[in-house]
Amino acid sequence: MKSQLHRKQIDAIIVAVRRKREQLNFSQEYMAAKMSIKQNAYSKIELGNNKLTVERLISICALLEMDLSELFEKTRPGVSRFSNLRLHF
């Protein structure tokens, strides 16, 4: 049960990342190049086939010019425990 809940939260984060990337008209190739990984590896992150590490999540947020708190608020509206957390890059 716990892992299913975590999987839903991770999936919501991945969807929010993909939406923001698409809003900015950034390709997966662009994101991968900026993160020094292959496009295939980035694609697997968005598909949920590769684990989304904290380091990669921070890199993605920096590229998309969004705070981690903003990302968490988008995935859990009104329930963010991170509302006071502000990371600037």
TrEMBL record:
Signal peptide: none
Domain HTH cro/C1-type: from-to ranges: 17-71
One Gene Ontology MF term: DNA binding
Protein name: Helix-turn-helix transcriptional regulator
Organism for this UniProt entry: Mucilaginibacter achroorhodeus
